[in-house]
């Protein structure tokens, strides 16, 4: 018995000891949590109930050259209601006036708002949606309605802010301006938005919010912990009026010719500023929209517009002059086993080099270049390189196409490469790169870099100004320039562009009609072309250069550059320079107003009086009366506006320097 009692006591001691050790371990753990890891767990608890939310900064604005908005960030607000945090007294007192205010603003019945508020109160809804997508002014009005004006805790208002990118001029120039990626919110890669994203982005802010339910948060206070900083604004070179003209001129032609896609660029000759860019692609239902930036990104065989470069090289290297006779034969000539044809049936026979370019003879240009450079093709290629035709222009907008001009030693080089290059085949170049060269011809040989931005601003203060950058100060001699400009003028007057000629308006340029996808097996039964026109206007003193490219027009309606692309060029040029403008004129600027004359004479006569007494200024203009009295040494107090109806010191009284006189005006 004693043994059993002893065993029981031992067990009790062991249990008590274990309990003591367990209690000691808990105490140690609690002390460790409280003092060693306390901060860690407090932060963890805080994170589970409060959280810093990112507030995106407003992107900077994108402006046209005249200050018109092309893209801007607009704040939008969603208003929600926490029905739990509001006291019963405040809820009952403000329910009706709050509902009336919302009804007046948004048109729904007062009863609608009363019912949803009561239901939210009964359901203890802490995240009731009231209205979405409010502009700033409406948000302020809602925020100041009864109950809501008490703030998030007493009034239950929950405000959720976000920014939306809007384009005031719509979809025109969308690819040039750029847009948010549809699958990546907040990501900008194309156009001006992508090119200057770092400047436009700004710095994000933070706002502390408290968790009120599963997945639901509301701001802890009305203020942000870190205020967002807006991005810089950029002023582009785009002219809204020219952009509109280019867009609609291109669209009209694409629709008529049922073309696949097309592009237009308008550049200011002296500065290289891009004033308009339109890129339109065809949808499956036959409509057109800004699909891709073809003008900058699409390299393709240019066809006849490249003949200008070939001719200039030959003139500058003294291979020929404009009067050199070229035999084009009967319109068909074989070069190294490959036949080259002219579009003119029967050929042109023997013509001058200038005439060969005016009528766009493939054989003529191929003969000139092959005869002049076949023994030293690198001389021709090096001339093209000196004009930077083998390089990108380096514009800020991403995605510029890479030009490709083969040279001896390349896989694509053969004996046929040289004559092919002469009339625009066997190479690739973008519309912008072609226009940059044509612009240099118009700019007296000065090649300037195309640019899309004029300046960067912060709060309307200029931060950075982008000046004209010269790529090549002189691409060729004045003699070559004069010759090529004359040929380009004659191309419109009597050459391939003669259908575009107008005696009332001068322009110079070159047509282009290039076969495309001719390597496809179905080409003979389904011929595809690229129609183009590049040039400048006015011809004598060029202000703007322009290029129009239209891909795959319906051959049933036409495909030659003069017919398809040329009219777009002409329409743009005429609308920019020849449309009538409203002029406000000021007639008879020297005509005098008798009333003004009478007032002046009255003022002048009073001013001339050297008096020791107070003059009578009643009936005079207040401004004139003050001038007279102050010149006499009086202090003048004025009440009202207009003419003097009374004066505090009567006329005729002795004048004392420094005396105060009050004039009542009406």
TrEMBL record:
<keyword id="KW-0812">Transmembrane</keyword>
<dbReference type="InterPro" id="IPR036138">
    <property type="entry name" value="PBP_dimer_sf"/>
</dbReference>
<keyword id="KW-1133">Transmembrane helix</keyword>
<dbReference type="InterPro" id="IPR050515">
    <property type="entry name" value="Beta-lactam/transpept"/>
</dbReference>
<keyword id="KW-0378">Hydrolase</keyword>
<dbReference type="InterPro" id="IPR012338">
    <property type="entry name" value="Beta-lactam/transpept-like"/>
</dbReference>
<dbReference type="Pfam" id="PF03793">
    <property type="entry name" value="PASTA"/>
</dbReference>
<keyword id="KW-0645">Protease</keyword>
<dbReference type="GO" id="GO:0005886">
    <property type="term" value="C:plasma membrane"/>
</dbReference>
<dbReference type="GO" id="GO:0008658">
    <property type="term" value="F:penicillin binding"/>
</dbReference>
<protein>
    <submittedName>
        <fullName>PASTA domain-containing protein</fullName>
    </submittedName>
</protein>
<feature type="transmembrane region" description="Helical">
    <location>
        <begin position="12"/>
        <end position="31"/>
    </location>
</feature>
<dbReference type="GO" id="GO:0004180">
    <property type="term" value="F:carboxypeptidase activity"/>
</dbReference>
<dbReference type="GO" id="GO:0071555">
    <property type="term" value="P:cell wall organization"/>
</dbReference>
<keyword id="KW-0472">Membrane</keyword>
<dbReference type="InterPro" id="IPR005543">
    <property type="entry name" value="PASTA_dom"/>
</dbReference>
<dbReference type="Pfam" id="PF03717">
    <property type="entry name" value="PBP_dimer"/>
</dbReference>
<keyword id="KW-0121">Carboxypeptidase</keyword>
<feature type="domain" description="PASTA">
    <location>
        <begin position="608"/>
        <end position="666"/>
    </location>
</feature>
<dbReference type="Pfam" id="PF00905">
    <property type="entry name" value="Transpeptidase"/>
</dbReference>
<dbReference type="InterPro" id="IPR005311">
    <property type="entry name" value="PBP_dimer"/>
</dbReference>
<dbReference type="InterPro" id="IPR001460">
    <property type="entry name" value="PCN-bd_Tpept"/>
</dbReference>
